[in-house]
Amino acid sequence: MSDPRAEFEDALNRIESDAEDLAVARSGGVPVVVMLKHDYDAWREAEHLGGGVVPTVPRGTAGAGADQP
């Protein structure tokens, strides 16, 4: 059996060394993305400067109706 903490640490190390994001699909839950903080900050700044709105969804409602036409 594997150690979840070690696997998570390995995933975080790969995100840092490869400068890639990690999309995590969760059984019965809304997928999440793990990314480097400076990439996240740059994304937020670009949205702000571009006049765009960074999409946020209140907790507990994420994905509600997303698969619905």
Quickly describe the structure:
With 69 residues, the chain is mostly helical. The protein has helices spanning 4-18, 37-49, and strands at residues 22-24, 32-34.
List the helices and strands and how they pair.
Blueprint: H1 4-18, E1 22-24, E2 32-34, H2 37-49
Antiparallel strand pairs: 1-2
Protein name: PHD/YefM family antitoxin component YafN of YafNO toxin-antitoxin module
Task: Report on the architecture of this protein.
With 69 residues, the chain is mostly helical. It has a domain at 4-49: YefM-like fold (3-Layer(aba) Sandwich), CATH 3.40.1620. The protein is built from 2 helices and 2 strands, in the order H-E-E-H. The chain has helices spanning 4-18, 37-49, and strands spanning 22-24, 32-34. The protein has a two-stranded antiparallel ribbon with strand order 1-2. Strand 1 and strand 2 (32-34) form a beta hairpin. It is flat. The termini are far apart.
Mean pLDDT: 78
Could you name the CATH topology of the domain at 4-49? YefM-like fold
Specify the CATH architecture of the domain at 4-49: 3-Layer(aba) Sandwich
Number of strands: 2
Protein name: PHD/YefM family antitoxin component YafN of YafNO toxin-antitoxin module
Organism: Catenuloplanes nepalensis
